[in-house]
Amino acid sequence: MRRILAADRVTSGAVVMLLLILGAAALVPMLSRQDPLAIGDVLALRLIPPFSRDAGGTWHLLGTDRFGRDLFVRMMLAARVSLALGVGGSLIAAAIGTIAGALAAWRGGITDRITMAFADSLLAIPRLVLLLVCAALWQPGLLTVLVVLGATGWMGVARIVRGEVLGVRARPFVEAAQALGVSHWQVLWRHVLPNAVGPAIVATTLGVGNAILLESGLSFLGLGIQPPRPSWGNMIAGGRDLIVSAPWVALAPGVALIVTVLAVTLIGDRLRDSLAGQHAPFARQLGERS
Amino acid sequence: MSVVARRVANALVLFWLVVTLIFVLIRMAPGDPAEFLVPPTATAGDAARLRTDLGLDRPLVIQYARWAGAVVRGNLGESFASRQPVSRLLLDAAPVSVALGGISLLLTFLIGVPLGMFQAARRGRALDHLTTVLTTAVYAAPTFWIALALVAVFTYGAATLGLPQALRLPAFGIRTPGGVLHGWAGFLDLVRHAVLPVVTLAAVGAAGIARYSRSAVADVLHEGWVGTARAKGARPSRVYGRHVLRNITPQLVVLGALSLPGLVAGSVFVESVFAWPGLGKAMLVAIQARDYPVVMGATVFYAAVVIFANFAADVALPLLDPRRMAKPA
Known about the structure:
heterodimer; A: mainly alpha; two-stranded antiparallel sheet; elongated; B: mainly alpha; globular
């Protein structure tokens, strides 16, 4: 790992950025003296430009929003929500996808056909449309977004794992394990899956960036995280009608989002490239934006 | 059965699965659509009557059969909110979205592919790293943020920087409101309104295509025929423009079909930010109003477009890549 980072400045830059954002997301809301959700003296505090002090002498790195709340502190609070949902949603998707793909390949026959037909029909609906429909049908909120991100993101991983398992299954060591009397599921779990998860891990890493983007999109449209709880998407939405008079309110949270997704994507790209030698056909499928 | 006929059958089965899935999804949701539709002052009897009117009191199987049968006949039902046929609502909105998406998709490839080639040709050098970070950043940016940033630059920014009137691009709608511009002036007005939405969608798309073409081109640059072409003395423009492009075309066709869902997502945001009366906007309005027939109709429409694009790419592939003719998959 250290050798890779030393040789690759882009990736190490991405890792540093991600660590900075994680650190700031953990520390800034904790250390800040202002409550990022409380609304104080709106008239005195609202829409203070970046890098300036309010009347009370408090320094605002990125200024304040229309209710006089510090933008930077809110942004870092939003980072917790967005990162947790992005990572959580992708992990759920990865778990479902791995199980579905492995079962489909291992059982074959009707299980395989039903699973893949289900995956294909979900893939035929643009993921954002699927998310919008689901988010609109259920109560918007943290849990809905998390579940829906997981439920709509597993198909890519399932296809990859299925392909990998089919490939690994034909290798001699699997036959050897079966000949030694290892049970059917033990072979899958202990011998086949560990050799098949590499591309799934890359897909999941790249999926984190996608999930963060989708969450922000849902929240931007009012179907995701609901105010006053900040998320990058609903903060951008909150600054939308101020775009002409106070553009920083909408633009600043987007910068945090872009830096985060950029860092995750660059790291995912690096992982994919290091896998590409062994898994050329599958490496290519990864990383489509959905 | 010929390969094409089998692909048609596959596409139709997939479409039927999607139609079923959408029905199940909508029916799985908690709550009763009739309750959203009646005014707060309505009695329980009003709600029940509405439920009967809409066929919501029939058994699920019957509702499904009715809906699936109607979809096959091209009838997507009637909007709860406006009482208009859903197909008419969608057809009214479609031209705006198709034009927006089509022009953006074209620009996406015209910009993305050469950019990816340029990067692949300089792979590993500083310029490649820089452009890779740039394209990844655009790819990492939410469409609606790029749209808002452009609005900020061309309204707020243009005014503070004192840009000439011609560069102060309109940020909302597709035409100047109340305008009675016709002919050339009307067209120019439309073009000016289209610049920011198209640029937003094309930028996001081109960044993704460039990321992909960079690795696709880099893969074929190791091939022997590239060396042969160079050894013959072919200029780089000929090596890339003819030999390399010809060899990555099949992948680009597949990518074109695969990029449609992303384009749909982008257009939903762009139509929302720029207030364009397209399909995405219609769908958002319907979702907020819980106008299920419109939501279902729009979803079916989007799925049909995606399925058709994948089908077309599948059929086109053997024509573009004779190597695939030999072994139909």
